[in-house]
Amino acid sequence: MNFDPTLLLMGAVLVVLIIFMVRNSRKRRRDAADMQEKVKVGAEVMTNFGVYARIKMIDDSENKVILETAPGQTLTVHRQVISRVVEAPSSAPTKAAPASKASTQTKSAGSSNAVSSGPQYGERVAKAAPKRAKRPASGTGS
């Protein structure tokens, strides 16, 4: 029987693929268990459809969670709808502090000493109309 290096290479690739699949599966299982530990009454969560709320009550027998979106406003959702637990922001100061109304008004007024920066996150900006490329003249050449 002859030694075939391509068969050995395909076997090695298959082994590496299986190892990565097992590692990924373990990591997902561990992350899911960590999130379930964090899901408890009073935790701030985000749902799959983007609603931020605070957990008011958990019913383990029916897998339901009652979320409070605003004072007096509640939603009843399935437990799997919770996509992540929102962590409280750290107490360390951030590098870019949000601009106050006063500094925004001075920027818009055109003050010469105001430093112009890009739009803030979530701020709407006017889109410029796209420029049309000139089309070559059609017809027969002369």
Assigned CATH class of the domain at 41-86: Mainly Beta
Task: Report Rg.
Answer: 28 Å
Order of helices and strands: HEEEEEH
CATH topology of the domain at 41-86: SH3 type barrels
Biggest β-sheet strands, sense, barrel: 5 strands, antiparallel
Share of helical residues: 25-40%
Shape: flat
Physical arrangement of strands within the biggest beta sheet: 4-3-2-1-5
Structural class comes to alpha+beta
What proportion strand? 15-25%
Low-confidence stretches: 100-112
Total number of helical segments? 2
In CATH, the architecture of the domain at 41-86 is: Roll
- Tell me how many strands there are: 5
How far do the termini sit from each other? 73 Å
Summed over residues and divided by their number, the pLDDT gives a mean of 79
Characterization of this structure:
By secondary structure, the protein is of the alpha+beta class. Among the domains are: 1-38; 41-86, Roll (SH3 type barrels). It has 2 helices and 5 strands; from the N terminus they run αβββββα. It has helices at 5-38, 101-108, and strands spanning 44-47, 52-59, 64-70, 73-78, 82-85. The chain has a 5-stranded antiparallel sheet with strand order 4-3-2-1-5, with no helix packed on it. β2 (52-59) and β3 form a beta hairpin. The longest helix has 34 residues, at 5-38. The protein is flat, with a radius of gyration of 28 Å. The termini are far apart. Residues 100-112 have low confidence and may be disordered. It is found in: Cell membrane. InterPro entries: Preprotein_translocase_YajC. It is a single-pass membrane protein. Residues 87-142 are annotated as: Disordered. Keywords: Cell membrane, Membrane, Protein transport, Translocation, Transmembrane, Transmembrane helix, Transport.
